[in-house]
Amino acid sequence: AARQFAMEAAQAGIDANTYAEQAVSFGAALKQAFGGDTYAAMEAANMAIMDMADNSAKMGTDIQSVQAAYQGFAKQNYTLLDNLKIGYGGTKTEMERLLKDAQKLSGVKYDINNLGDVYSAIHVIQENLGLTGVAAKEASETFTGSFNAMKASLTNLMASLTLGQDITPALQSLITSVSAFLFNNL
Predict the structure, then answer these.
(1) Is residue 66 a contact partner of residue 55, using CB atoms and an 8 Å limit?
(2) Cα separation, 145 vs 130, whole angstroms
(3) How do residues 110-132 score in pLDDT, each as one tens digit?
(4) Which range has highest mean pLDDT (39-48, 65-74, 100-109)?
């Protein structure tokens, strides 16, 4: 499942290697948040990584700043929350306000001490702001976005070749992204 999530991330311009690095950076904290449920932790990591890409694409913040914020949240450090530019400052009180706002929107109670809840609450807020799916949309509709998706797909194909894996999914992704770049955006 993790490999499939990483391959799908290429559609948003994130190569599998970068995806894996991000997932690993907060994977242990997410696994703990989900009581050892590895699959639930992988799903939450996938959502967070895609949310980071969406935030960066829509808000214009460099992805490293957004990633640093999410990595901080894994350590219960909220000083970089304002990097997300979604209307909250960089304090624990502001994160608590975000969780309450997300609860009003979703009806779900979020616990600041549970990283899975924190990432889910951010997802709800970003979804409410229309940020969800922005990176994938840009990857299919803009010159830069489609170029990055093509580059990520090529990186994934090279990794599959190097590791001796079945290259069919990676090759199909590359064909799709090259087509989107050349025929829709170039």
Answers:
(1) yes
(2) 18
(3) 999 999 999 999 999 999 988 77
(4) 100-109
- Listed in sequence order, the residues at least 6 apart from 77 whose beta carbon sits closer than 8 Å to its beta carbon are none
The dihedral of CA 83, 87, 89, 94: what is its sign? negative
State the residue for tokens 């450090």: 77
Assigned token pair, 54: 């969406």
Picking from 75, 23, 68, 80, the residue whose alpha carbon sits closest to that of residue 50 is 23
Please give the DSSP secondary-structure letter assigned to residue 60. Answer: -
pLDDT of residue 88: 95
Mean pLDDT of the chain: 81
φ, ψ of residue 135 in degrees (nearest 5):
-65, -45
Question: Measuring CA to CA, which residue among 120, 78, 108 is closest to residue 96?
Answer: 78
- For the residues of 75-143, what is the DSSP string, one character each? TT--TTGGGG-SS--SSHHHHHHHHHHHHHHHS----TT-HHHHHHHHHHHHHHTT-TTHHHHHHHHSH
139 within 8 A of 177, measured Cβ to Cβ: yes
